[in-house]
Design goal:
The protein is built from 4 helices and 9 strands. It has 220 residues and is of the alpha+beta class. 44% of the residues are buried.
Length: 220
């Protein structure tokens, strides 16, 4: 990167906007993870927007539950969920309080703390793969359900925060369908990424999961 990223923390007002404004504006920002193992900084390169009650692809489409309660605000908090029985995913809540929406952090470039990320992502062949995909990003940053509800605007010592960074130029931002989203939410072009960045994950269309006949269906 040719210039030093801005170290100013993003204020709550940044997140208190419509999700389709916040999502592309997060590209190029610096996500900071503070943990007992040290500090990792990551430049966001790929995200997805989820718009709550108007979005069939959102966890909050059917209303508030114990699992998705953080999505209803306040903005600027982290929404972490566990999926497929093995992976965590990290989202940032946005929009006015009471109206659920959030941005899934899909991929990024590790700027500092790569040695920690490598220990957690032993299968990564290159550093560009350390956080290439939402589950990989969460694993690299040691994100778990214990961080659900974390206020990213609470100050420099919080476990998660977002700095101004170097916002992506508008002509570098691309959008398209969200990865793995099916049904009525599939056509929404609410995945945003920085064109040509090697840390961006490949697009994959939704593939219906096979359900065991002897088990009940569950909703995300």
């Amino acid at each position: 990167m040719s210039e030093s990223p801005d170290r100013t923390p993003l204020p709550r007002a940044f997140f208190d906007r419509p999700v389709l404004e916040v999502a592309p504006d997060l590209l190029g920002r610096t996500l900071v993870r503070n943990s007992p193992d040290g500090r990792i900084e990551l430049r966001l390169t790929e995200v997805e927007a989820y718009a709550g009650a108007i979005d069939p692809g959102s966890h909050a489409f059917r209303g508030r539950t114990a699992r998705n309660a953080v999505m209803f605000g306040p903005p600027g908090h982290a929404y972490v969920y566990f999926t497929y029985g093995m992976w965590h995913c990290l989202n940032l809540v946005c929009g006015p309080e009471g109206h659920a929406s959030g941005v899934l952090l899909r991929a990024g470039e590790i700027l500092s703390g790569a040695e920690q990320a490598r220990k957690r992502r032993l299968s990564a062949r290159y550093d560009t793969e350390l956080a290439k995909g939402p589950a990989r990003l969460a694993t690299a940053l040691d994100v778990s359900l214990s961080l659900n509800g974390t206020d990213t605007c609470a100050g420099p010592d919080t476990p998660l925060s977002v700095l101004t960074g170097t916002p992506a130029a508008r002509d570098q931002v691309r959008s398209g369908p969200r990865t793995g989203v099916g049904g009525d939410g599939a056509p929404h072009p609410w995945r945003f990424w920085i064109e040509g960045d090697r840390t961006v994950s490949p697009y994959r269309a939704h593939t219906p999961r096979k359900r065991r006949l002897d088990s009940g269906a569950t909703d995300a």
